[in-house]
Structure formats: C-alpha cells, structure tokens
Amino acid sequence: MDLRIFVEPQQGASYGDQLALAQHAERLGFSGFFRSDHYLRMGAGDPLPGPTDAWTTLAGLARETSSIRLGTLVSSATFRLPGVLAIQVAQVDEMSGGRVELGLGTGWFAEEHAAYGIPFPDKRFGLLTEQLEIVTGLWSTPVGETFGYAGEHYQLADSPALPKPVQRPLPVIVGGGGPRRTPRLAARFAAEYNQSFPAKDVVVAQRDRVRAACDDIGRDPDELVYSVAFVACVGRDEQEIARRAAAIGREPEELRRNGLAGTPQEVLDGLATLASQGITRVYLQCLDIRDLEHVELIANEVMAHLPASA
To answer: I need a labelling partner for 168 at 20 to 30 A (CA). Which of 127, 135, 264, 268 fits?
Structure first.
C-alpha cells in the first residue's frame, strides 16, 4: 500500500506550513504530498492567512524537496484555461525533475468562485472533458509539430504545444463518484482513478465501473492505479485520538466510521480492508497541517508495519 499526505491549505495554512509538512513527509518516506486547489475557507473559523494558489505553491515545493511526488487532488477546470494549465504543470514538472501529477476535476464550490470573480457555469463536465483532451493533447504533440483544437468551450490554433513535461506521459488523476461519465473519463485519460471520501461500502462498485469502462475501450484495467482519500486521525490511545479529533472539529467515532482513524492497529486494519478491495494507494487527509507529530506517528506505527507485499 502506497501512502501519501494530502492537505487542505485553504483552511488556514501558509506556504511555510505546507513546506514544513512536505519536507517532513519526504524525510519520513511518504511517497507523495498533495494539496487541494481551493481559494476559500470552508466552514467557520479563522480565515488567515488566506488562500495559497496550488500551482504556485507546488512550484516552490518542487525546488525545496528532492524525492517526494507532488500534485493536486484536484485542480478545478474552472480556475485555469487549459493551455495555461498545461504550461504551468509542465513547468513545475521540470522544476521538480519529473515528480508532478495532475489531478483535475469539474470544481464544485460555488462560493469561492463568487468570492474571487471566477465564472461557475451550471454544467461543467464538458469543460473538464475538453481540458483533459487539450492538456494531454498538448503534451503528446511531437516537438516541431503544432496542436489545434476546436471544441464547444475552447479553441486552439497552431499551438507549438510547448513546454513539454519531463515525464512522458505525466500522470493524470481523474476522480469522482459519478456512475457513467467519470469512469469513461478515467478510462480514456487517467493513470490513476481516485475516490475521495467515499462511503466505504461503495468503493468496490465504483472501482468496478472504472474497470468496465476500460474494458469497453480495449484498455487493460490493471494499467490504472486505484486510490482513495480519507481523513486521518491517529493516536496511541483514546485520549490522543480525542485530542486530534477535537483539533479538527470532529468526533472520534464519526472519524472511525468515515475515515482512517483510531489506534495505529485500527488504521492498519482499515488499510488491509482497502487492499483486499483492490486499492493500492491511499491519500491521508491531514487537516491539522501543523501537527507534524501526527504524520510521524503514522509513518512509524502504520506505514512501517504495512506488509511488504501490499
């Protein structure tokens, strides 16, 4: 089982906070440091220091880390034009030496769009589809050739399709729980299919929809990584679990039901269940970004005890 750290900086985190956790996660051996792509805090609480842009942040982290993989879970198709996004991601990939992954979704948080004057159309799946076609098309166009696109939402003419990412292909993550269109997009474009915060009893059924969509287009379903993201809240005893749950405004038993929470052994048991369901990568959402001891506990008491064959 591959474990990655996932953070929500819009809830109150500076670039320095993110850097400290990314470097700590790298030292501890986590394979990835991923962040959300949001511009507004969700729920009540102190909004300071304000949002940080995902790809600006990842560019900085690319230069201040050396081995951990970096990416978004997920960028919103409403935030950036696809040609600009392709340039940004390719540049950060070069800055990192080829350690970047692009998670891309439709976007859903209407309030952040209103707060910063970003258009938020009612129907966004077409935007996402065209962005995936354009971004992957730009990256795969041979050097010296041009790329054009005539879609409903975007038109590109004679693009030099530069720069290219270091990774060929650069991994794309498609996520979501839609029963038809999302699996088809994952089958067409994704190196990884992610379910973020799913009900635990739907993980297998949704994974199977993606596998069936791969079969429908003649793609080997085993080419994809199947991943999930769950909130993490781990403690050595009930007192420590309760303290960490309170710090993020949650209850221990609710976190046990809906996340990966409890003692290290409880979390290991949860990961074993996911592994039996065909999940090979888990993003651990760490909502208290300054609690570096939490991440260290997970590394030493969970990750270190995962079966070598998992």
So the answer is: 127
Domain boundaries, the chain: 2-305
Identify each DSSP E strand in the chain by its residue range: 2-7, 32-35, 69-72, 75-76, 100-105, 147-150, 155-159, 172-175, 192-196, 225-234, 260-262, 281-285
Relative to beta strand 172-175, strand 192-196 is parallel
What pLDDT, in 10s, does the model give residues 247-265? 999 999 999 999 999 999 9
- Cβ atoms of residues 8 and 287 within 8 Å: yes
Quick check: bond before 169 cis, omega within 30? Answer: yes
Quick: pLDDT tens for 29-79. 999 999 999 999 999 888 899 999 999 999 999 999 999 999 999 999 999
DSSP 8-state secondary structure symbol assigned to residue 202:
G
User: Would you give the DSSP letter of residue 181?
Assistant: H
CA-to-CA distance for 103 and 192, rounded, in angstroms? 9
Distance separating alpha carbons of residues 225 and 189, to the nearest angstrom: 12
pTM comes to 0.96
Q: Give me the architecture of the 2-305 domain, per CATH.
A: Alpha-Beta Barrel (3.20)
What is the biggest distance separating any 2 CA atoms in the chain, rounded to whole angstroms?
62
